[in-house]
Design goal:
seven-stranded mixed sheet; alpha/beta; 226 residues; single chain
């Protein structure tokens, strides 16, 4: 069974996208986060044999938000407490204990990521134990595995050495596959990069399939005010 999981936080002002919020406003950053989550979930609703929305925090408001978003396309799972590594480790173990054979996890920080790359991740897991999608900020936008990997403990998360530290924890008996690099959107500069990418895609006749994000751009929502 191929399982796709989206890791996401409830997009509340002051709780998400702190670097975007610092350069604009917490309210704007939360609207961006909401658009990214919705676009990612919509775009990936047909990927894999089953799909999971792994959400945080574990409260009633977050559950209501993600339950409405999930519909019949996603199963809801509360993330465990702890840092990102602890939450990823607990989640992967739960999924394999529940019957998953190939697990791919993405976040919602790369809304322009083509679904073809996610499909490719599952294909790579037919011959690899771990697949990684390197992010241009030094982390990774996607991780896939065929069993729980020993790579989540002791990582300096949200830093430029996440990918390097992850690779260092993979011993030689773990077969690794790599996907094309892609970019996350965490800062104001990243937001402008995304806008340019969307404009370029539209200019050559391609649909980026992120309507909620494009709606924010088209309404002129920038620098914290509409």
């Amino acid at each position: 069974m191929n399982t796709l999981a989206i890791f996401a936080k409830h997009p509340q002002p002051g709780l998400v996208k702190s670097r975007l919020a610092a350069a604009s406003s917490p309210e704007w950053a939360a609207r961006i986060a909401d658009a990214f989550i919705r676009d990612t979930a919509d775009k990936c609703a047909g990927v894999g044999d089953e799909r999971v929305l792994a959400y945080a925090p574990a409260d009633a408001d977050a559950h209501r938000y993600f339950a409405a978003l999930a519909g019949s396309a996603y199963r809801l799972v509360q993330q465990e407490v702890g840092d990102l590594g602890q939450r990823l480790d607990a989640f992967t173990r739960q999924q394999f204990a529940g019957g998953s054979r190939r697990l791919v996890i993405i976040g919602s920080d790369s809304p322009s990521l083509p679904t073809d790359i996610v499909h490719e991740a599952f294909a790579r897991l037919e011959t690899a134990d771990v697949v990684l999608g390197p992010a241009t900020d030094g982390g990774y936008y996607l991780i896939g595995c065929t069993r729980p990997p020993p790579i989540f403990a002791g990582i300096t998360w949200s830093g430029p050495r996440v990918l390097a530290e992850t690779i260092a924890r993979l011993s030689a008996d773990w077969r690794l596959a790599l996907l094309p690099p892609w970019y996350d959107v965490d800062t104001l500069d990243d937001w402008w990069t995304l806008q340019g990418h969307i404009a370029a895609l539209r200019r050559v006749g391609l649909d980026p399939q992120i309507p909620h994000t494009e709606a924010l751009i088209k309404c002129g929502y920038a620098n914290g005010s509409a």
